[in-house]
Every structure is written in structure tokens, then in C-alpha cells.
Amino acid sequence: KVKLLFRIILFRLKIDSKQFCFPCSTQMEKEVQREFIYCSGAATEVLKVGSSHLSGRDVLFLIIPGNPGMVEFYRSFMQTLHSLLGLPVWAVSHAGHCAPPDSMDIVEDASAAAKRDVFGLDGQVQHKLAFLHQHVPRGTALVLVGHSIGCYMILEMMRRDPELKVLKAVLLFPTIERMAQSPQGKVMTPLMCQLRYLLYLPLFLLSLLPHGVMARLVRLMFSSIPDLDPCVLQPSVEMLGSGDCPVNALYLGGQEMRMVLERDNVTIQKNLDKLLFYYGVSDHWCPVTYFQDIRRDFPHGDFRLCEKGIRHAFVLDAGRDVAQMVAEWTRGSLRG
Predict the structure, then answer these.
(1) Range of 59's domain?
(2) Which residues form a coiled coil (predicted)?
């Protein structure tokens, strides 16, 4: 009945869903490959720009996304990075943060996924390590680029597998400490920890909307961003339409609030020469006080404060600008 109601509304609005396709106009589109795989038993999207096959002697830029961890949000960022450096740039989604084809379930084995807590924070870190071990030749030199909670995951990956050949790790708007105490964390913690289940029904109903209606809602949601990257529109529609992805994102977010507490100073000190941190001047997830604290504690580290007013969710309108900065920062660390 709900689906029938939405179809009637769609007919009366005379919305043609075909007009809501969101092309990303770029001359490099042919170099982009989307793959859906099972990793740690969960559906995973891998976005590859440039070479899709590695020899073990390559340098690979690997993007670890924020939350939600849909890699299509990073398409413009990745394409710009590849065009500037000529190196393969891959991004691996978080487990269950994708809209897989109809032939794939969100997990291979539901009981095994639940036992491993693959959608939780620890499970997502293990998921990234499993991807590296299974899909990237061991000798590959890595430039890891993390965004938001992806920065926490990168530090954990480097701690758990110190044999990874990491040339550089760039941590963008890093949520690596005191998340629940941040200005945004104080607002979101009750929502994602105590009230999360109340959001499941509206999310489910939202996923039943026809594509055209969903697309119109997404456009409305982003209407206040004048320079919005059109490449983020389609993955937004896919995310809301999947049902599973926003639920998994909320679950991960709740664990972030509870588990991202103290900064891992030991791992930072051990890898200080490989790490670059980039903080936002008006970032409510990792405020300027966090930047000041970490810079004071590690006076010889590379900590930078944004001077361009870029938002925490930089992929919305500044992906190309941030890619240009990352390319400049990492050139000196590249080998071969």
C-alpha cells in the first residue's frame, strides 16, 4: 500500500525519473572502474582511477572514507589526484556502505557477519586490512589518505600491521579523539546511541520512494551549497535508496561516539615522519582546540590548519581543491 501511494504521488507530480540522472562531466570518466566484492563477508565497493591491476612495485593511493563510507562521494577528488600524479588511486568503501547490484546480498553469511561485528568500528578496521591483504600485492608502496573516521582507521591499520609499506598517510579533518566531546558529537551522540532505532522506520520508508522523488529530495537537501559537486548526487540517492547503508552508517557512528576517546599517541609518535594532519578552522567534529593540543604534544609533527574555509565534508564542494593540496604535499614522498 505504501509503494502504491508513492506511485500515485509520483504520477500526479508528473516526475520523469530519467531527468534525475546525475552525470559527472569529466574527460577522465573512462579511467574509472567500479567493482563490487565481498570483503570480510560484507558487500564492498571499490572505486579505481587509473590502473586496476598492481604489480607489487607500484605506488598506490588508497582512500579510506569517512562515515557514510560510500566511495562514489570521492570520485572528483580521486580523478583530480590521479590527473596530477599519474598514479593509481583506489578507494574502498566501508563494509556495507554501498548499494550493491541485485545479485549481491549485503552480507554473505549474516550470522558470521554479526559474530565478527563487521559493521562496527573494529570490524571496519579489520575489513580494510583484509582488503589490503587480499587485493593489493604485499610489496606495494602505499599513500594512505583518510577522511574523518577514516583517519582513525588508518592509525589503527598502521598499529596493527606495522609491516605495511606506508610512504605517507594524509589525515584530512581527522576524528581521532574525543568524538563525543566535540561540538557535533554532543549533538549526535544521543541520536546515534540512544535514539538510533527510532530512525530505522523513517529510513525504511524513505528507501521506498521512487527514484525521481528521492532525487528531488536530495537536490533540495543540498540546495544551500552553491558549488555542489554533481558527482555526490547519485551516490546520495543510492545510499538513501539502499536502506542498509544508512542503517550501517548509524551503527558505525554510534560506536565511534563510544570508542574514539583518547588519541593514540604511541602510534602517532612511532610514525610521526609519515603522518600529515589537516584540520578545519570551523570543523565541529575536530575543533581547533584539538589541533592546538596535538601540535603542542608533537612539536615536530606535520599539522596544518585549513586557511580556505573548507568544510569537514569537503567532498561536497571542494574535492578538487583538496586533491590539489594532497598532491602537493605527497610529491616528495613518492618513489618510482
Answers:
(1) 27-179+261-331
(2) none
